[in-house]
Design a protein that fits this description.
Blueprint lengths: L8 H28 L4 H10 L4 H21 L13 H23 L4 H14 L10 H12 L7 E10 L7 E11 L4 E6 L5 H8 L7 E6 L2 E2 L4 H4 L3 E4 L11 H11 L4 H14 L15 H13 L5 E5 L7 H17 L4 E6 L2 H7 L2 E6 L3 E6 L2
Parallel strand pairs: 3-8, 3-9, 6-7, 7-8
Antiparallel strand pairs: 1-2, 1-4, 4-5, 9-10
Helix pairs in contact: 1-2, 1-3, 3-4, 9-10, 11-12
Length: 381
């Protein structure tokens, strides 16, 4: 559960190990020693219960009690109780069971996005900290797109991002404005390229489309469904290729595609043929049995794109899909994405890229975002 407080797995691992080692390990030793000294016995008795907030402490304290109970009984005869008493190991066992149930429920609630609904209570306050800019000098094409999306029926537009704004609260610092006012709409058969320098707000916009972050204001709908209130339905329509490859090093290429095909609910009778098709289309035949961790950077990106588009999801999100690919592989990947979006006309594709060449090759329209999360240009190349 605590992993949700961190964005880096290295920091999460370090802090979590430190937390459990210091409080569960050293804390149990300190509390046990304090209970053996007359002048600090009461403090030790209190600390034993305070530290039990940490699950691993209950385990360590139970072991420490078994080691010191005879000494404790001699020095403090009043503490001599049965091993399964609430003030002995019984309390540790009970709390371990309670911890297991409680934190599992919290984890399920986080995954079910229950706490996301509370964000709305704070969004009003967040929005007031940085008032919306009123002096934006927008290009005519940008204003025209805003008017088109505003007037459109959200049920008819496949992807609709209307006046999306995101600010981040920061401890001891002023809030950070990531995206000011982003508006665009897409239908099947269209490919939209989101361009801009690092820090312009492209990734924030992408995270909002995948439901990873909550908009401070504005609304985002996929097939007429609000991405916040109907995410359980929306997520089934989305294929996502993240900027950093979300692969398992020890699983083979074929196993990855089988795994994601099952997650996406593809029927068993057509699953093998679709996996075979993706391996062939992404030119991964000779790597099908290789562990993904041994692939080159370019082939990892191919695998990520293949996992994204398997099953032809109606909404495809590609975050710098060709990063690390050689020119030949990049051209090959472009032809696959173009076929899905423009030739079949059964999907809407949104991609971020730093390559103008890639944007021109794939997109039917593009938007150039500048720092502050504002579209400077919108339209064809």
């Amino acid at each position: 559960m605590t992993s949700f407080f961190f964005s880096s797995e290295n920091i999460a691992q370090t802090v979590t190990i430190f937390l459990h080692f210091v409080i569960a390990g050293i804390g149990a030793i300190v509390a046990s020693i304090l209970r053996l000294i007359d002048s600090t016995a009461e403090i030790g008795d209190v600390l034993v219960w305070v530290f039990k907030i940490i699950p691993t402490y209950s385990l360590t304290n139970g072991i420490m009690y078994q080691s010191l109970k005879d000494t404790l009984a001699v020095l403090r005869p009043s503490t001599k109780v049965d091993d399964l008493d609430i003030n002995a190991m019984g309390g540790d066992i009970l709390l371990l069971c309670m911890h297991g149930v409680f934190w599992t429920l919290i984890l399920i609630m986080i995954e079910a996005r229950v706490f996301r609904k509370l964000d709305g209570l704070f969004n009003i306050c967040r929005g007031k900290k940085i008032p919306p800019k009123t002096d934006l000098k927008l290009d005519e094409d940008v204003i025209e797109e805003e008017n088109r999306v505003e007037a459109a029926n959200k049920d008819n537009m496949k992807v609709r991002v209307n006046k999306f704004r995101k600010t981040y609260d920061r401890i001891f610092k002023k809030p950070f404005l990531a995206v000011e006012k982003t508006t665009f709409g897409l239908d099947y058969g269209e490919c939209f390229a989101l361009l801009g320098v690092n820090g312009a707000g492209k990734t924030t916009t992408f995270k909002s489309l995948t439901g990873e972050i909550t908009p401070t204001s504005g609304d985002i709908t996929i097939n007429g469904m609000n991405i916040e209130s109907s995410f359980a339905k929306v997520r089934k329509l989305i294929g996502y290729c993240p900027q950093h490859d979300a692969i398992f090093d020890l699983m083979t290429v074929e196993e990855h595609l089988q795994y994601y095909a099952r997650i996406k609910g593809i029927r068993k009778d057509i699953r093998d043929s679709l996996v075979e098709k993706q391996i062939r289309e992404m030119n991964l035949e000779e790597h099908r049995k290789k562990p993904a961790g041994t692939l080159s950077g370019g082939n990892k990106r191919k695998l990520s794109v293949a996992m994204c588009v398997i099953g032809n999801p109606p909404i495809i999100l590609l975050d710098e899909p060709s990063a690390g690919m050689d020119p030949e592989a990049r051209r090959f990947m472009w032809s696959v994405v173009a076929k899905i979006s423009q030739q079949r006309k059964k999907s809407a594709v949104i991609l971020t890229t730093h390559s103008m060449e890639e944007a021109e090759a794939l997109s039917t329209k593009m938007g150039i975002m500048v720092k502050g999360g504002i579209f400077r240009c919108f339209g064809s190349s």
